[in-house]
Amino acid sequence: MASWKSAVVAAVSAGCRLSRSVPTGGATARLLQPHIRAKSSLAGSVYLKDIPRIVSAVPACHQTAKVIFEDNKTAEFKYIWLRDNCKCPSCVDVDTRQKLLDTPSIDSKIKPKALQIDENNQLVITWSSRDGEHVSHFDNSWLYRYGQCFMHDTFNAPSVLEEDGVRPRPPLTLWNRYIIQKRLPEVEFEEFVESDNAMFEWLDMFYKYGFAMLRGVPTDREQLKRVVDRFAYIKETQYGATWSVRMDPTPGVHLFSTGLYLQLHTDMNYRENSPGMQLLHCLQAEHPDKLGRDPGGQSFFVDGFRVAKWMEENEPSAYHILTSTPIRFSIKNKEMRYSNMWPIIVTNPEGDVQEIHYNNRTMGPLQAPDHVVVPFYHAYKLFSQRMREESQQLAFHLKPGDLVAFNNRRVLHGRTGFDPSRVVRHLHGCYVDIDEAFSKYDHLLSKRPSL
Ligand code: OGA
Ligand code: ZN
Ligand code: ZN
Predict the structure, then answer these.
(1) Are residues 250 and 363 in the same domain?
(2) Residue of 56, 68, 155, 267 with fewest CB within 10 Å of its CB?
(3) Do 270 and 386 sit in the same domain of this protein?
């Protein structure tokens, strides 16, 4: 009967998904437990009869404890807020009820060691600090009252994917230079073409890293479509079904048709939905010579989700500006006139990063209240500086026969400048709707034996 009494102790390091969240069966199951109302209250734990009891408390993403009440309301409490509101005698003076805890001294990245619900239906949080353990107790009634601004209705329905028996996707792997270089996500073209298993491996890398390579692709213009036809179909855009990135002397065509350095960016943020998957197949390129002289045209890639997470954890005000300020991206070139607005970092209502839209070349004048202007430039600089650090970038010269595929709404790409009168560089590219690639991935995933 007293199932709610069993402490809900969960590993505080519970994994978190960045790009999609499926309600966990555990939380849903706990909601179905019988309601038990308190008749009495113990000293220090005054809870009202009609205040919904806490059913469970679990650590969640974004430095949050998720507390579910028996009326199916979920409140998301930030750890720093909970720590700041500890009511123990060393944090609040017993007689005057004035606060003894010095709020600015709290580590903004504080995390609890354990969350529990005790027999009085209090949320008990154990913190560890340099001075040893600290324990905070919160009544259900106090949390319910002060949690109103953090509350939403618990989403109770099973997800469509679960209903259809589709296997949940694995967690994403956020990467920097060292993580991705340790095991470069790459597959040989021959294997990719001949084996569904190899294709699955490649799609799996593409899903987890937002980046995957094929090696040894024959260097003719037919191969790009051949690759895409294995798992999806090409998404045609204003540049056609496929396009060439190479020197084009026609004035005003596009900056990619020059030898200009292209700083990190995502493509086509000015479209109603920027393409999710981009493929670049290298047909011709030049490598550093034996003396290491660099001809330029080096490619570089950065995991925008990882940089965004770093911003969230280390520069929360800047992160807030980048997730809440819509930016207009436009292109006006001959007949091309497209324009759309996004925040640079797009999050879902749960705070998970969904998309990155970043392209300094097509970003329009900031249209925002004047108090946002300087903070925006500050935030934009911090985000740019972080992604431009070498430690974040996978950088290499594409060789003829290499093909890179990347999630254009997650991974930023760029290339160093080169002299097109001396260097021959020809990439053949196209876009694919990313949900087509993921649909194939889900299908192959659901056919695989469970681990
Ligand atoms: C582009 C682009 C990359 C390259 O055309 O948008 O980013 O390596 N090109 O030339
Ligand atoms: Zn305390
Ligand atoms: Zn580009």
Answers:
(1) yes
(2) 155
(3) yes
- Find the CATH number of the domain harbouring 113: 3.30.2020.30
Å from CA of 266 to ligand 3 middle: 6
* 106 C-alpha to ligand 3 centroid (Å): 42
pLDDT at 47 > cutoff 50? no
- Tell me the average pLDDT of the chain: 87
CA 71 to ligand 2 centroid distance, Å: 29
409 and 266 in contact (C-beta within 8 Å)? yes
What is this structure's pTM?
A: 0.81
Atom of ligand 1 nearest to the CA of 413: 7
Q: Which residues line ligand 1 (CB under 6 A)?
A: 245, 256, 262, 267, 299, 413, 415, 427
**pLDDT tens-digit readout, 218-249:** 999 999 999 999 999 999 999 999 999 887 77
| Helix pair 304-314, 316-324: axis angle to 10 deg | 130
Q: With beta carbons less than 8 A apart as the criterion, state whether 25 and 41 touch.
A: no
Host domain of residue 381: 177-446
